[in-house]
Design a protein that fits this description.
By secondary structure, the protein is α/β, with parallel strands linked by helices. Helix content is about 40%, strand content about 20%.
């Protein structure tokens, strides 16, 4: 008994000898020193903070430097700005089906632009493995949320096929189901019923036979590309053939009644459906811009030459259609921007996503174009950042764990040399990126990007 009390006494003395501002954290620590933190909820800048990181999470936010001897890594911010990493909510991850297996380069391209979470929109069994490796930091990668393989008119021609695949993909562990065009109405309804029964979300395109109103009523997790909305703006009395809608409703531009926008926006709110605009797809692939000019942009050096050639040809084919004109595209884009603005203000909400790698959308870099598209649609810089941080955290049921710099949140950051609310272009050149506690300095980013550029030349 005397020995027991002696040990307690020794512990008490040791505790008393610990400096007041030295905490015992019992884990390897990193410290970001003297950094200005962007509060993405309010836009307020929290000045000269010290961010203590351990186990891949933020464990403290302090006003002065702690004296803990356990801190192994100190990152000198020197007054730079810190904001949460961005989520690319319409991403694509390479798979063996692409004929490209170097997925690590694609994942790094996302990280190089501060994208620390990606929602893969065309799933493959490999992506389930990558998701787990990323979470364990076994690979350098954003956090991965992955869809199932595609549901479309060919893969699910019958209701029975839909039931079989919904159940199989749920059991395989995919996070949600990816819907593509061509699904028949009866097949879609069976798919929805089964998905709700086994509790797996569904998201993506809106098939012509389904229509935007029925899609919203059915409870999509997200409608991507603002798909089906322009078709939904055409009054039924016009008697148009739905199959003649063209590229995401482009052919119906002159028939769309913008007075109906408020109804569709309200429906997204009523049924809790998020929208992922992928506006950069329409600003770059489907726009009058010269494809040869886009191919010369600096970021294109990270894509293989054969990929660039296919992108140039794809864009040329798209805009050479007799229906396409710069004037009609301007009207089409104006409707899209109005939809985006109102979906953000009065709808359930937007999620940031650019559909990379798609035509002239380089992974990571394309998120910068998407942010510009959001500003062009009338969102404020803070709103544009929120749809890439706070909104994805809410969508993923990870509030407090993702999308903000807060105690208990994942250590996913972008360090910047200026306040992004004053100049969004500063996001194009991060001073550093942290993903789940792994720090990538500007020097590290540049070195790896140079390697990827050299690889693309081969």
């Amino acid at each position: 008994m005397k020995i027991f009390y002696f040990l307690i006494f020794i512990g008490f003395i040791s505790a008393c000898n610990t400096p007041k501002n030295e905490k015992i954290y019992n884990q390897d620590l990193a410290l970001i020193k003297d950094v200005n933190v962007l509060d993405v909820r309010t836009g307020e800048i929290l000045k000269n903070k010290f961010i203590l990181i351990g186990g891949g999470e933020i464990i403290d936010i302090l006003d002065e430097q702690p004296e803990s001897k356990e801190i192994e890594t100190v990152i000198e911010a020197s007054g730079n700005f810190l904001m949460p990493g961005l989520a690319e909510m319409h991403a694509h991850i390479p798979s063996p089906d692409w004929g490209r297996e170097n997925y690590e380069e694609t994942l790094f391209l996302y990280l190089s632009n501060g994208v620390t979470t990606i929602r893969g929109m065309l799933g493959h069994p490999l992506h389930l493995e990558l998701r787990e490796k990323a979470l364990k930091n076994e690979i350098l990668s954003p956090r991965i949320i992955t869809s199932s393989p595609s549901f479309n008119g060919n893969t699910v021609p019958t209701p029975e096929d839909a039931v079989e695949k919904v159940v199989a993909y749920k059991e395989a562990g995919y996070d949600f189901l990816k819907l593509h065009p061509g699904i028949k109405r009866e097949v879609f309804d069976t798919l929805v019923k089964t998905a709700k029964l086994v509790d797996i979300p569904f998201a993506g395109h809106v098939s012509i036979d389904v229509g935007i109103r029925h899609a919203l009523e059915s409870g999509y997790a997200t409608v991507d590309h603002v798909d089906g909305f322009i078709e939904g703006l055409v009054p039924e009395g016009k008697g148009l053939d739905p199959a003649s809608n063209g590229f995401f409703g482009y052919n119906f531009t002159n028939e769309a009644d913008t007075n109906l926008i408020s109804e569709l926006v309200e429906m997204t709110n009523t049924y809790g459906v998020w929208v992922v605009p992928t506006q950069s797809l329409f600003m770059r692939w489907f726009s009058p811009t010269d494809p040869e000019q886009l191919a010369l942009e600096e970021e294109m050096k990270y894509m293989p030459k054969r990929t660039l050639e296919s992108w140039v040809n794809s864009k040329k084919n798209l805009i050479s259609d007799p229906e396409f004109s710069a004037e009609k595209w301007e009207a089409f884009n104006a409707i899209r921007k109005s939809l985006i603005y109102q979906l953000n203000k009065k709808g359930h909400g937007l999620l940031l996503g650019s559909d990379a790698p798609q035509v002239f959308n380089v992974p990571g870099f394309s998120i910068q174009h998407e942010l510009k598209g959001m500003l062009d649609a009338g969102l404020t810089p803070l709103e544009a950042i929120q749809i890439g941080t706070l909104n994805p955290a809410t969508y993923l049921n990870m509030e407090g764990k993702l999308g903000e710099v807060a105690i208990g949140a994942s250590a996913d950051f972008i360090m910047l040399e200026a306040n992004p609310l004053d100049d969004m272009d500063i996001l194009k050149k991060p001073a550093g990126v942290m993903v789940r506690g792994q720090w990538l300095s500007r020097e590290t980013l540049d070195k790896k990007l140079a390697e990827i550029a050299r690889s693309a030349e081969q």
